[in-house]
Design a protein that fits this description.
With about 70 residues, the protein is mostly helical. It has a domain of about 35 residues. The protein contains two helices and no strands. Helix 1 packs across helix 2.
Length: about 70
């Protein structure tokens, strides 16, 4: 391992804008446990499963049917 590296000719990552962004989201424990139980069965981290599900909802433009009583 070198003591110093020369990054003067380095290029910016062209995929940096496509990376995930860290946020804080509040979820109820039942929802978290649901995705954790699925993740154990398929071997994918539960946070990735939540992301995949939300991405699928966005891609299919799925809308919630909210009716307040």
């Amino acid at each position: 391992m070198r003591d110093e590296y020369d990054f003067s000719k380095a290029k910016k990552n062209p995929y940096a804008s496509q990376l995930k962004k860290q946020i804080t989201i509040r979820l109820d424990e039942e929802s978290i446990n649901y995705f954790k139980s699925i993740s154990e069965g398929v071997g994918i981290p539960y946070q990735s499963l939540i992301n995949l599900y939300l991405r699928d909802c966005a891609a299919s433009q799925r809308k919630l049917n909210l009716k307040w009583k």
